[in-house]
Design brief:
The complex is a heterodimer of chains A (about 375) and B (about 210).
Chain A: H1 9-16, E1 22-23, E2 26-27, E3 35-37, H2 39-64, H3 68-73, H4 81-89, E4 96-102, E5 110-115, H5 122-138, H6 152-165, E6 172-176, H7 181-196, E7 201-205, E8 210-211, E9 217-218, E10 227-230, H8 234-239, E11 252-254, H9 259-262, H10 267-274, E12 284-286, E13 297-302, E14 312-315, E15 318-322, E16 332-336, E17 342-343, E18 346-355, E19 358-367, E20 377-379, E21 381-383
Helix pairs in contact in A: 6-7
Chain B: H1 9-12, E1 41-46, H2 49-55, H3 60-77, H4 84-91, E2 96-100, E3 106-110, E4 114-119, E5 127-132, E6 145-147, E7 153-156, E8 161-164, E9 180-181, H5 186-192
Antiparallel strand pairs in B: 1-4, 1-8, 2-3, 4-5, 6-7
Helix pairs in contact in B: 2-3
Classes of the chains: A alpha+beta (about 375), B alpha+beta (about 210).
């Protein structure tokens, strides 16, 4: 649905510190239109399936952690398997996830992938689109009955509070890597939520983390880091110089290490093996299990990849097109080709958020191209 | 309602300065908040060790220990500035001291103005302490106020009695000697050097590993 932009929203963005609404000269936040859902669509087609998919994902973790062969298929290095198992057996708390869904408003939503380790677009979802709705109801563009599936901020504040309360750590660290305004913005938002929860919090860049005595990690002022959220993928950390330090280290990490199973594309064929034919799943296969037939169209995805990088489309075993990127040396999986629904000229992807185990809202990205990537525009939504 | 009921919009605004000039290092807390907590009580602020000892003759040793530890903590936790000018712009002319930084360059931090001191509520320790700072700069939000290293304000420095919650004395995290840095983050450098040219379109951003 088209809608007038709020007057002066860019100034407002500046005031609230939302600095990445335009990326590389192209709009990222787009409020010239919005998506409209019925409550029935939200609750029956997105919220309930998200909760169910998440539970199914947890069952996959439970299966995989005890199976050396499967851990191998997930590309988990041998030396970290005990650590991963322990993180799962101890049920180390998790903060949030985003399930990417293809949903056309009528047919069952299909799971594309699970961004369980380092999901972004959190600030735009939890706060900025919330503010957009409040403003538009106040200025009369939208009616008072309009709602939004978006309790992200409320749930994040509560979740951070309970995680912090379960540790005896005074300071909650938040971390991302340098040179990404977007990632820093996401992490700052989590810090805002922590502050709202009354939790003392600090920031350190991933690259600045130091090695202290006795297997500790330190910040730039040599303080020991006991509890830290990192917007940085586990598979990177495990392969880097400090990876082995994790084995004797007592720092509590968010997301916990067991999330490495969920953020891994090997999750998709595992889900299909354990829940074949589930209406919210697309058929998916490990690389060595694909049986090609002439018309079969499959998408090949690397085990570890982000923002639509290194994805290719195959038909009957032949490559039709691909996207470029730095991923793929760890292996690939194949997933049934299921193009994103098209509204007007745009392909639309729904991000369905969970905080801990609870559905907490959606975000919408659209793109003229068929594979949504990091510069796809973000649009708000309402429930009417 | 399927959305967050209410959001504290003031807290979400980023243009309100905590410290007026941006420190290079700072123990971040909900700065500019006045202290509030369920279990409020009185504490004293001493600007010298002698006053503490004369007021608490039976706790003279505690005063000495508190003073010494407060000074140590102040060095670790006070906001640090890259230039003397930045520091003085916040705290006043000649109110800043140097802090040797690992880089070999000096940073600047406000001098400790005094230390909070209170009898402890539990039996394990006899006293609690916290270094405090103040600003002599009219334009600073901390002008003539007692302020702790995290930017919390505890009222006018004309009064040596302050009302504090238990969080005022919250112990700082343990500190260790850092052996090395930079063991995480190398994959970013490697992958960032990749610049995308895809068959659908070209897009890549530097850094950034969210998804």
């Amino acid at each position: 649905m088209p809608i007038r932009e709020r007057a002066g929203w860019r100034n407002l963005a500046h005031e609230y510190g939302f600095h990445f609404h335009t990326l590389y000269g192209k709009p990222y936040w787009d409020e010239t239109a919005y998506y409209r859902f019925t409550l029935q669509q939200i609750e029956k087609d997105i919220e309930e399936p998200s909760e169910e998919l998440h539970q199914m994902c947890l069952e996959v973790v439970d299966r995989v952690v005890d199976d050396e062969r499967l851990l191998g298929k997930f590309g988990i290095p041998d030396i970290f398997r005990d650590l991963l198992r322990t993180s799962w057996k101890n049920r180390q708390p998790s903060l949030y996830s985003r399930l990417d869904l293809a949903y056309d408003g009528r047919n069952p939503a299909k799971l594309y992938e699970n961004n369980a380790d380092t999901p972004t677009s959190l600030y735009e979802s939890g706060f900025w689109q919330w503010l957009w709705l409040e403003d538009n109801v106040r200025n009369g563009e939208l009616t008072r009955e309009c709602d939004q599936f978006n309790s992200l901020q409320e749930k994040l504040v509560q979740r951070l509070k309970s995680i912090h309360a379960s540790t005896d750590s005074a300071d909650f660290y938040f971390s991302c890597c340098k040179d990404s305004e977007e990632d820093r913005g996401t992490v700052q938002y989590l810090q805002d939520c922590a502050t709202e929860a009354g939790i003392p919090n600090r920031f350190v860049y991933v690259e600045d983390i130091g090695q202290g005595g006795n297997g500790t990690f330190t910040d730039l002022e040599d303080r020991v880091i006991e509890l830290i959220f990192k917007l940085y993928p586990w598979e990177f950390m495990l392969s880097e110089d400090y990876g082995p330090l994790l084995l004797k280290n007592r720092t509590q990490w968010l997301e916990p290490l067991w999330k490495a199973i969920l953020s891994n594309k090997a999750l998709l064929p595992m889900l299909w093996q354990m829940f074949p034919g589930h209406p919210n799943l697309l058929p998916a296969f490990f690389e060595d299990e694909v049986e090609w037939s002439p018309g079969l169209k499959l998408i090949k995805k690397p085990l570890f990849s982000r923002e639509g990088a290194n994805v290719s489309l195959y038909k009957g075993g032949k490559k039709l097109f691909d996207t470029d990127g730095p991923y793929g040396k760890e292996g690939f999986i194949f997933q049934a080709y299921y193009p994103l629904p098209k509204f007007g000229d745009n392909h639309t992807l729904i991000g369905s958020w969970l905080v801990d185990d609870q559905p907490a809202g959606i975000s919408i990205r659209e793109d003229k191209a068929i594979v949504t990537q990091d510069l796809s525009r973000y649009l708000p939504h309402v429930i009417v | 309602m399927k959305r967050t009921k209410s959001i504290n919009l003031d807290r979400m605004k980023k243009n309100g300065p905590r410290f007026w000039f941006k420190p290079v290092a700072l123990a971040v807390a909900g700065a500019m908040l006045s202290a509030c907590s369920d279990d409020e009580r009185e504490a004293r602020v001493y600007t010298s060790l002698e006053v503490c000892k004369s007021e608490n003759p039976e706790q003279a040793a505690d005063c000495e220990a508190a003073y010494r530890k407060a000074q140590e903590d102040a060095a670790k936790t006070a906001p640090k500035y890259a230039s003397r000018q930045d520091c003085e712009s916040e705290f006043g002319i000649n109110r800043c001291t140097t802090y040797p930084h690992a880089s070999g360059q000096n940073w600047f931090m406000p001098a400790m103005a005094g230390f909070m001191f209170a009898r402890a509520l539990d039996s394990y320790q006899r006293y609690q302490y916290q270094p405090v700072f103040t600003s002599y700069r009219r334009s600073s939000p901390f002008y003539n106020n007692w302020v702790t290293a995290d930017g919390r304000s505890y009222g006018s420095n004309r009064s040596t009695n302050v009302t504090v919650g238990s969080d005022a004395f919250q112990s700082k995290p343990p500190v260790t000697r850092t052996i090395s840095r930079g063991g995480f983050g190398s994959t970013v450098a490697a992958k960032s050097s990749w610049s995308g040219s895809s068959s659908t379109r070209s897009s890549s951003r530097s850094g950034g590993w969210g998804g």
